[in-house]
Sequence to fold (177 residues):
Amino acid sequence: MPHHPDVTNPAPTAPDTALPRPPRPRPRSHEQRLLAPALARMLPGADAPPAPGAVRAAFALWLTAAAAGVFMTAADGLPLLPFLPLRMAVLSAAVLVAVRMRRGARWARWVLACGLGATGALSLTAWAGDAAAGWPPDVAEVLAGAGCVLHLAAALTATVLMFRPAANAWFRAVHHR
Fold:
């Protein structure tokens, strides 16, 4: 096609340097608007001041202890069936209290240390007594025992970490803000 003298070819332009627009927020339902503040208070989020590594590690270990408790319950099977709702309620409460501890609630670390640390020690003692009575143990007892030992190790380590000097200073700072 011949080039027409009165038609100008536009020169190539520089790429658009404008930043992309952020996506528009989607409208939230009434339930989402009601639940969002409550969930924000419960879930670990931005801490001011930031939680030290000992508190973050203790939180992870409490979640590990709760998971080990679920594993113990599943490995024990039928003998614990009548106690299953109670055990699941305690483990769920432990997770919620651990979340509160991670957010800086001083009462929560005492509940975890005294309530669940002592419960973990008692459950290990009970498991050891049951295991000694039925020697040699079957596979389910060994798995439940492994879960019990993991539960206790995680709970005791988390308890120690929650009371480290850096953790104590952080709990004081969070309490006074």
